[in-house]
From TrEMBL, chains A, B:
The keyword Lyase applies. It comes from Nocardioides luti. Keywords: Lyase, Pyridoxal phosphate. PANTHER family: L-THREONINE DEHYDRATASE CATABOLIC TDCB (PTHR48078:SF6), THREONINE DEHYDRATASE, MITOCHONDRIAL-RELATED (PTHR48078). The modification N6-(pyridoxal phosphate)lysine is found at residue 112. This is Threonine synthase. One of its GO terms (molecular function) is threonine deaminase activity.
Length: 411, 411
């Protein structure tokens, strides 16, 4: 590892017992098996330094485990996506001041480009020879694309019964897509096995996970900067493993500590689909333990039945005065169409879940509609077209004449 | 029309006879039926003014027919997409200094968001009550989404035999998708008929076309700014109607006149698919007239058999020392995979055409591989997945065990 390979990162530290080890391709504490995360020695960082940086996540490089020359390495240049004022959606839901953070316009159309960019930097610094992941969708796209651009061999593992269009959307970037006879859990287990057997493999969400996960902090940094260096009052975030929600909270806390935003209370809300809602169920039951479930929902990118960071999500949502809520698949579909028709943003099922949960939170009085609120859209609807293909379609089919059109009454 | 509704635009002027008329919802010269375009009285504009603007096309508002407060109107905030240094693609093609302007990361994943944003501004200033277009794809998405966000009624006309996924990708944004029994030409004719019969309809590519077309200039402005306020030596642009190519050239000329970049020679190249190559055929034959063709190519977003701006494309490519070239559908497919596997960019068939033509131009000695070159990617591969679904797929299908994986030889 070269000097400064991880910027201001100091060590890996255990989230459970606090044990520290040097930076390396590790993810579990050698003392207690708790999850490792990155600890930093941050220097003074100013708004002006950040604003002078590139228009992508590397403007925050001082706050990430990446080298100072990270922009020089070929990478996807993700992030700094739009924060859109959602006048129409806000009016429809009765929220005065609503924003959508739209990560569907990232290079491979989901927030995964952020985390994969940080994982790629770590893999490069560790001289990994293969960049890999198990995935059924967004992560596979992001890994295969980023690896292609960086010129590192990628191997992407998917369940063999994955729909053909989803296979194509990853296979176009890599000649080493591997179909595995089994479900996602089988694929995931195989990935851990290979990570243990092979030297020089960086599995983004396994052995370089601590670096990877830090990428989600950039969502939080961007929201604060795009609001004019302020934190929102309330934020609604989808929950799969729970990592994104915990990292956005971490980002807000870091910005406060660094003096980049003023300290203020904010409420964090988690969104799940009813068919995979272990965190929401625990939240509502008032318990601390997450009981794993077998997922059954159209929100496949949120379908993690045993979420690694679920207990931290519970802590954060409870401490900040937020909540965790879930909605049905039909409500997910409705919310996708609602967001498209009010703001012109076509979201995938994960975003439908988040917007639908926002709606339910207002209706049930759990979210204050007079406070400034941000909702995160993590991915693009083109990836989950089937979810709404029975919901929307032509209003009329006509002959190519003005008379035929006039008869529809649409004019 | 309110004061300043069109910014620094002065009048509509005929591209053929120079006749000027006041700004209004007109598109054909009343004297000679030539195409109208926007004439401006530009004030002094500085790089600093532009750089202080928003990170979207409105940073160039002083050079567009839009009001000074355009950012205040709800809009899709398109543009300022990535200009990526294409190290790997350049190496593969033998080009020393190659850039990809990647418009697939626009809000609805194509360059059409730029032109539609300008059309929407005009429609708003003309107090249009309906925002409409005939389209088979990218334009339909962009119009339906932008209209939804702006809160104006949209009506989008498509051929009734359009594939279901493409219908969904527009219908999700609008409750007034109209399927027309006929081909695209029939749909287009119907649109012109409705534009003539109904008051208050803004058909983006018909009666507000002069405003709409100006949006493509922003591609040229951005490339120059992102290169550090310089023009490239060579640029390769896809040709459908030919409007985009002529507008990028216009943008470069304006930047020179305004003193925002240094004057220098640059070569403009047009890219077509062999199955719809009327401009390329005329270029190669050394003639000035375009003979219309019946399109037959997978590059559907380029399939305009009678391109309105084809003759201007010929002029520009000849005057600048560029060329117009075409490639087969198989070469389009190969180029899509090539771009994905070298740069991690998944392009639609139009981008495949452009990259494939770039390759052919180098191979045939028509483009100088030692000069700085930009190639434009206009849209996202998720919209034309079928084009490559037979080209790419899993390298192996295995059982979920390390032994099964090791046997593939991929490690």
């Amino acid at each position: 590892m070269r000097e400064g390979a991880f910027g201001n990162a100091r060590a890996l530290t255990c989230r459970e017992c606090g044990h520290e080890i040097p930076l390396g391709p590790h993810y579990a504490c050698s003392e207690c098996f708790g999850p490792l995360e990155i600890a930093y020695d941050f220097p003074a960082v100013t708004r002006e330094q950040i604003e002078a940086g590139p228009r992508n996540i590397w403007r925050y490089k001082a706050l990430l485990p990446v080298p100072d020359d990270i922009e020089q390495s070929p990478n996807m240049e993700p992030g700094f996506t739009r924060l859109l004022k959602a006048h129409n959606l806000g009016r429809t839901l009765g929220i005065d001041n609503l924003w959508v953070k739209d990560d569907s316009t990232n290079p491979t159309n989901s927030f995964k480009d952020r985390v994969v960019a940080c994982a790629l930097s770590a893999a490069t610094e560790f001289h990994s020879k293969v960049f890999a992941c198990p995935s059924t969708g967004n992560l596979a796209n992001a890994v295969a694309a980023a690896g292609a651009r960086a010129g590192i061999k990628t191997v992407v593992f998917i369940p063999s019964n994955l729909e053909k269009p989803k296979q194509v959307n990853s296979a176009v970037y890599t000649d080493s897509l591997v179909a595995v006879n089994g479900n996602y859990d089988d694929v995931n287990r195989l990935a851990s096995e290979i990570a243990g057997e092979e030297d020089g493999w960086a599995f983004v969400n396994v052995n370089v996970r601590p670096y990877y996960a830090e990428g989600s902090k950039t969502l939080g940094y961007e929201i604060a900067e795009q609001l004019g260096w302020r934190l929102p009052d309330q934020i609604v975030i989808p929950v799969a493993s729970g990592s994104q929600l915990t990292k956005v909270h971490k980002a807000f806390q870091e910005l406060i500590k660094l003096g980049l935003v003023e300290e203020k209370p904010y409420k964090v809300y988690g969104a799940q689909a009813e068919g995979c809602s272990p965190v929401s169920v625990a939240y509502k039951a008032g318990v601390d333990a997450i009981r794993p479930v077998k997922p059954d929902t159209i929100a496949k990118s949120l379908a993690i039945g045993n979420p690694a960071d679920g207990i931290y999500v519970l802590d954060i949502c409870r401490e900040t005065g937020g909540a965790v809520e879930d909605i049905t698949d039909d409500q997910v579909r409705e919310a996708i169409v609602l967001l498209a028709r009010t703001e012109g943003i076509f979201t995938e099922t994960a975003g439908g879940t988040t917007v639908g949960v926002l709606k339910k939170l207002v209706e049930t009085g759990q979210l204050d509609p007079t406070l400034e609120t941000v909702v995160i859209n993590t991915g693009h609807g083109l990836k989950t077209l089937d979810a709404v293909s029975d919901q929307v379609g032509p209003a009329a089919t006509i002959d190519p004449s003005y008379a035929s059109f006039a008869a529809t009454g649409i004019a």
